Amino acid sequence: MSKGRIIQVMGPVVDVAFEDGHLPHIKDALAVDNQGKRCIMEVAQHIGGNVVRCIMLASSDGLCRDMEVESTGSGIRVPVGNKTLGRLFNVLGETIDGGESLESEEKWVIHRDPPSFEDQSPVVELLETGIKVIDLLAPYAKGGKSACSEEQA
Fold first, then answer.
1. Tens digits of per-residue pLDDT, 76-128?
2. What structural domains does the chain harbor?
3. Distance (Å, rounded) from C-alpha 78 to C-alpha 80?
4. Cβ neighbourhood burial of 111 (10 Å; 0-12, 13-18, 19+)
């Protein structure tokens, strides 16, 4: 894991400088100790040289220039599973509803690579959250037709 230093704080936007060749990836999580509380930010872009621009996922109050930042080496992970259904937790997976801890649950990175072209499908799928997703673009990309285009024909 690489370490960097804050060079600028602009509200929830934080610029962090790293040693040459040790930049974290876009969407990687960075951690900083802010007055005894571990805060997480996400790398939004490389802005040139050895500097990355990040978005804080908590209050940036108390952050200042030259504070040490550590790259976690991976994206932000949130819990998934039966215990998460109907629960309230923040983007870091910390419970805010006063219920049972979700520490033991499996965790998924919130920003994952998209599925390959071959894995995309024009079918309806039911996700863990219970939300139905219809992929209307895949039929066109594969030369097919959607129900909407057939009705208009």
1. 888 887 878 888 877 777 778 888 888 788 888 777 666 666 665 555 555 55
2. 3-75 (2.40.10.170), 117-144 (no CATH)
3. 7
4. exposed
What is the secondary structure of 95-135 as a DSSP string? B-SS----TTSEEEESS-PPPPGGG--SSEEE-TTS-EEE-
What's the farthest any 2 CA atoms get from each other in the chain? Answer: 64
First-to-last C-alpha distance (Å) of the chain: 57
Question: What 8-state DSSP symbol labels residue 83?
Answer: G
Alpha helices in the chain (DSSP H): 137-141, 147-152
Token pair for 110: 């919130």
